[in-house]
């Protein structure tokens, strides 16, 4: 067994991790953050999210999404993989508007799933470049539909799971659910990294 020294992606403290066959055979990912940073995140009491929104998560989202630190997609990969690896529903990440994605250089939702090796399909496209985070609660609830089906997308009569980074009012997930249900989905549920 070899020791590999890497640094915590959040605080840069050295991480001592042992590389072994067990890690390879059981689909364990190498740790990317230290125990001290990990302890700052608070698990969600709901089954529809992994974590609660708190100061540690606020810092994480700022660094990951707005400072474009794509390496941080790996921080929660073990937990996401464990939660979604046996999911029977087709997973659909909430899309970004193309202008926002070009500005940010990557789709933060898709990168979370890729880091966790979770397969997904994209059936939706965002119709507005406005972000929900720029609106207050009332504006979010009253927003016009945010999505449409992608050209050529076919929604089958089966179950889908929408995946997003954070749920605050639920407007984004509600709009995406409405589009899929109107297009013929059997059922649409949702799961988020964070419950806001």
From TrEMBL:
Name the UniProt record assigns to this protein: ComF family protein
UniProt similarity note: Belongs to the ComF/GntX family.
InterPro entries, sorted: ComF/GntX_DNA_util-trans, PRTase-like, PRTase_dom
Coiled-coil residues: none
Pfam families: Pribosyltran
Domain spans labelled Phosphoribosyltransferase: 130-195
SUPFAM superfamilies: PRTase-like (SSF53271)
Annotated source species: Lysinibacillus xylanilyticus
């Amino acid at each position: 067994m070899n020791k590999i020294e890497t640094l915590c992606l959040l605080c840069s403290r050295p991480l001592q991790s042992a590389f072994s066959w067990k890690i390879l055979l059981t689909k364990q990912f190498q740790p990317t953050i230290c125990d001290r940073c990990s302890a700052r995140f608070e698990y969600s009491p709901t089954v529809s999210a992994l974590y609660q929104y708190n100061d540690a998560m606020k810092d994480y989202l700022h660094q990951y999404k707005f400072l474009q630190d794509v390496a941080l997609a790996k921080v929660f990969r073990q937990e996401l993989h464990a939660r979604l690896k046996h999911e029977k529903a087709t997973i659909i990440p909430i899309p970004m508007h193309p202008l926002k994605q070009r500005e940010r250089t990557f789709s933060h939702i898709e990168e979370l799933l890729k880091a966790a090796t979770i397969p997904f399909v994209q059936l939706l496209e965002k119709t507005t470049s406005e972000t929900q985070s720029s609106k207050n609660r009332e504006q979010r609830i009253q927003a016009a539909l945010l999505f449409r089906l992608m050209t050529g997308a076919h929604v089958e009569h089966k179950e889908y799971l929408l995946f997003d980074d954070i749920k605050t009012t639920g407007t984004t997930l509600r709009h995406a659910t409405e589009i899929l249900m109107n297009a013929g989905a059997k059922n649409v549920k949702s799961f988020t990294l964070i419950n806001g």
